[in-house]
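Customer escalation, tier 2.

The customer says the design service returned an amino acid string that "doesn't look like it belongs to this structure." They asked us to rerun it and document both sides in this ticket. The original C-alpha cells are below, unchanged.
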C-alpha cells in the first residue's frame, strides 16, 4: 500500500474524530436546564415589581420583559441569536437605523433578529426589551438559538392595561 494513502487515511480519520468531539462539546453547552420569562412593572411610586408571567401589560416606558435560560456545561462565552416576532409592525424598533446595533429588522418590520456573545452568569443567559409607544397588542414569539441551534421558544401576549388588571384580579380571587 502507498504510504501517502495510509498517511492521508489517518489524517482524515483524525480530523473526523476531532470534528465529532467538537460537535459533541458544543451540544453539551446547549442543554437547557431551566427557563424563565418575566415582566418588570414600575408602579406609580417608582418601585419595580417582577412577575413570572406570559401576559405583559402594554404600558410604554413602565414595563419591560425578558427571558432567561440556564445552560448546563455553559462555556465562558455563548453566542445566541433571538428571533423576536410581533403580530403587527410597531411604530418603533430600538436601534432600527443604527448600522452598529446587535439587531436587524425584517423588511416587514415585524421581526427583529438579535445576535450577541454573552458571558453566562452562573450558567444563565438572558435578553430583555421594554414596551415602547406604538407597540401592538397580541401574541409575541421569541425563538432562541445557541451556536445556530434552536434551543427554546417563549410565547407571550401583550395586552391593554385594563385587560391585564382584570387577569390579575382573577388570579388573586383564586
Amino acid at each position: 500500500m502507498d504510504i501517502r494513502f495510509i498517511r492521508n487515511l489517518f489524517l482524515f480519520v483524525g480530523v473526523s474524530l476531532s470534528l465529532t468531539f467538537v460537535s459533541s462539546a458544543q451540544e453539551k453547552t446547549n442543554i437547557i436546564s431551566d427557563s424563565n420569562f418575566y415582566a418588570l412593572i414600575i408602579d406609580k411610586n417608582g418601585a419595580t415589581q417582577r412577575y413570572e408571567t406570559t401576559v405583559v401589560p402594554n404600558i410604554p416606558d413602565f414595563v419591560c420583559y425578558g427571558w432567561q435560560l440556564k445552560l448546563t456545561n455553559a462555556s465562558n462565552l455563548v453566542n445566541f441569536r433571538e428571533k423576536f416576532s410581533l403580530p403587527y409592525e410597531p411604530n418603533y424598533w430600538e436601534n432600527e437605523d443604527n448600522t452598529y446595533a446587535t439587531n436587524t429588522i425584517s423588511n416587514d418590520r415585524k421581526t427583529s433578529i438579535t445576535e450577541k456573545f454573552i458571558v453566562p452568569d452562573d450558567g444563565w443567559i438572558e435578553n430583555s426589551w421594554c414596551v415602547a409607544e406604538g407597540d401592538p397588542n397580541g401574541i409575541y414569539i421569541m425563538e432562541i438559538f445557541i451556536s445556530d441551534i434552536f434551543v427554546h421558544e417563549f410565547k407571550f401576549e401583550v395586552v391593554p392595561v385594563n385587560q391585564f388588571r382584570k387577569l390579575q384580579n382573577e388570579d388573586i380571587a383564586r
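Tier 2 assessment: The sequence is consistent with the input. Helices lie at 3-29, 161-173. The two ends are 79 Å apart (CA to CA). Sent an explanation to the customer and offered a walkthrough call.
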